């Protein structure tokens, strides 16, 4: 069910769209193998779709989808820095740091908007007669 936007929900949507752009730039201009570029492009496309849904509807489903994609983005930025990619050394650069930072910002904005969503619930069940 769509809800009215707040400054935090709009900011979360815009930060998610910016995250998708950074992921796209990382996929196209990074020094990766072809299969990693394909994964990064798919992740950027899914993140952009989630951001569009969040900006349009601000529904629970869009927030869950964006939250899931943002957690995957955090892991995708941290794993190469901690363990390294297959056949490559550990790397940490500006773009993975930007992905990680934007993902943390999106999570913080979604959590900041949560108390308002909880207080706006109906007091009655929608199935009550």
Summary keywords:
5 helices; mainly alpha; 129 residues; 0% strand
Percentage of residues in strands: under 5%
Give the mean pLDDT. 85
Supply the helix-strand structural class.
Answer: mainly alpha
Most strands sheet: none
Looking at how many chains there are and whether they match, the oligomeric state comes to: single chain
Number of helices: 5
| Shape, per Cα inertia axes | elongated
The end-to-end span amounts to 20 Å
Helix content: over 70%
Radius of gyration: 17 Å
Uncertain parts? none
What is the N-to-C order of secondary-structure elements (H for helix, E for strand)?
HHHHH
Got a strand count?
0
Keywords: Membrane, Transmembrane, Transmembrane helix
Transmembrane segments: 12-29, 35-52, 64-85, 91-112
Write the layout of secondary structure elements.
Elements: H1 7-29, H2 34-57, H3 60-82, H4 94-112, H5 114-119
Helix pairs in contact: 1-2, 1-4, 2-3, 3-4
Structural commentary:
By secondary structure, the chain is an all-alpha fold. 74% of the residues lie in helices and 0% in strands. The chain has five helices and no strands. It starts with 6 loop residues before the first helix and ends in a 10-residue tail after the last helix.
Short structural description:
The chain is an all-alpha fold and 129 residues long.
